[in-house]
Design a protein that fits this description.
Blueprint lengths: L1 H19 L4 H8 L3 E5 L2 E6 L2 H10 L1 H10 L3 E6 L43 H12 L7 E4 L6 H11 L4 E5 H14 L2 H9 L3 E5 L8 H16 L3 E6 L11 H7 L3 E4 L5 H10 L4 H8 L6 H18 L5 H7 L10 H12 L3 H5 L5 H17 L4 H7 L5 H17 L1 H14 L1
Parallel strand pairs: 2-3, 4-7, 4-8, 5-6, 6-7
Antiparallel strand pairs: 1-2
């Protein structure tokens, strides 16, 4: 009898090894390893933690499991652990505990349409993609939206959430990190996995907040892969393109870039003017203010709120003189070279400290060289002065950078257009 038990255990280990050989290690660890393996009446019985896990494994991995079972002359059954059966203690066993997100907040965006996002020509493509993914299943998932702070990424994510008919799970990057850590602490990690996967559309805002958190990045990458395999939509937002995100390994960056990557440009003067007018600022004043504030949607909303609140509290119409005094800490004065460099850092998705430092990564060097060309074309600064504001580079380095970028501009039309836009912003 003891010999028969040993033989059964050996067979189960062989079956596990055969299944592991037919799929990647992350998928096996996340979905197959937690299953309870048994053989009963020539049938391989795989018992899942809950119904969602059983359904997902049955729909995605059933063929592989059936092929392996057939190799050992067995049938296949995927079961759910019943409440009447006393299972062996298993870490993260959500048969005993369930998961619910802590402190979930509802979106305050207008639920009727995408009209709350003021679109310029440069953002028409990303807006169309957002409307398409909100309408149903698309072929370009994940949709990765990136751009500087205040360009409208979170607003677009909220609009998608409100316009989608199916179930939507939306989190910020910070929430995902804290909720994943909490599920590990509470031993409800499998329930957390089920919660994230049991949706039609998954939205993660500010992906960059996962930077440097290896275990969380692994779980996030597996989540994205599982949702794609299940035909679900994934929407991600970040402050930089996938290849420029720091703290992520190359595999995760590649996964993030495997769908549709679309950038959102910062509000131009027309967009700022429309936003101010929608908030009740008079037309002529909106024109004057829009030209003197930075292209940051949060800042524009704050300016509009300040003018509106002043008018309500003081009971008087805000004139341009009053607005100038009221917004003295916000309205831009003449653009300094350092301000231009900081502005370009936001546009190019790099930090100011990194540009002025000694980093030599390919993306950072390219961004630094682009800034030198823009300063040369947008200002009357000497090459020595340009080198000083770009991290104390010498004259020869600036000359080399400008020559390299000018060569690239002749063949790379996207780069040429990007430089032209930066020059126009700095003038």
């Amino acid at each position: 009898m003891q010999t028969a038990a040993m033989k059964t255990m050996t067979n189960l280990d062989q079956i596990r090894g055969a299944i592991a050989a037919k799929m990647d290690s992350a998928t096996f660890t996340a979905w197959i390893s937690p299953l309870q393996f048994d053989v009963c009446d020539n049938v391989l019985v795989l018992t899942a933690q809950n119904q969602f896990s059983a359904d997902f494994i049955g729909s995605v991995h059933k063929k592989v499991l059936m092929d392996v079972a057939a190799q050992f002359g067995l049938g296949l059954e995927i079961a759910v652990r019943g409440a009447a059966v006393a299972p062996a203690p298993v870490a993260n066993d959500n048969a005993l505990q369930s998961y619910s997100p802590a402190g979930a907040t509802a979106s305050t965006t207008d639920v009727h349409a995408f009209d709350s996002f003021v679109c310029c020509d440069e953002n028409s493509f990303v807006l169309s993609a957002c409307k398409k993914i909100a309408a149903g299943v698309v072929s370009f998932s994940p949709l990765f939206i990136y751009g500087p702070a205040g360009c409208g990424k979170t607003l677009l994510a909220d609009c998608i959430e409100n316009a989608t008919a199916g179930r939507v799970v939306k989190m910020s990057g910070g929430q995902f990190v804290s909720e994943f850590a909490r599920s590990l602490h509470d031993r409800t990690v499998f329930a957390f996995k089920d919660f994230c996967r049991n949706c039609d559309t998954f939205i993660l805002d500010d992906v960059q907040q996962l930077s440097g958190k290896r275990a969380t990045c692994e779980e996030f990458a597996q989540l994205v892969m599982d949702l794609r395999v299940a035909g679900k939509n994934v929407v991600l937002t970040a402050n930089a393109a996938p290849g420029n995100l720091t703290g992520f390994d190359r595999r995760v960056q590649s996964l993030l870039a495997s769908g549709l990557v679309a950038d959102v440009v910062a509000p131009n003067n027309h967009v700022k003017r429309v936003m101010l007018m929608r908030a009740g600022v008079a037309g002529e004043m909106a024109d004057a203010i829009a030209a003197r504030i930075a292209g940051d949607g949060h800042l524009v909303a704050g300016v509009a709120m300040k003018i509106k609140t002043y008018s309500e509290l003081m009971g008087e119409t805000v004139t341009m003189d009053v607005a100038t005094r009221l917004l003295a800490d916000t309205l831009q004065k003449s653009k300094t070279p350092i301000a231009m460099v900081r502005h370009m850092c936001e546009k190019l998705g790099v930090s100011y400290d990194a540009v002025c430092g000694r980093g030599r990564s390919r993306a950072l060097v390219l961004a630094r060289q682009i800034m030198m060309v823009v300063l040369k074309n947008a200002t009357n600064m000497s090459l020595t002065e340009i080198g000083c504001v770009c991290g104390d580079r010498d004259h020869a380095t600036v000359v080399y950078a400008i020559s390299q970028i000018e060569k690239l501009q002749k063949t790379d039309l996207v780069l040429a257009a990007q430089i032209n836009q930066l020059v126009a912003d700095c003038k």
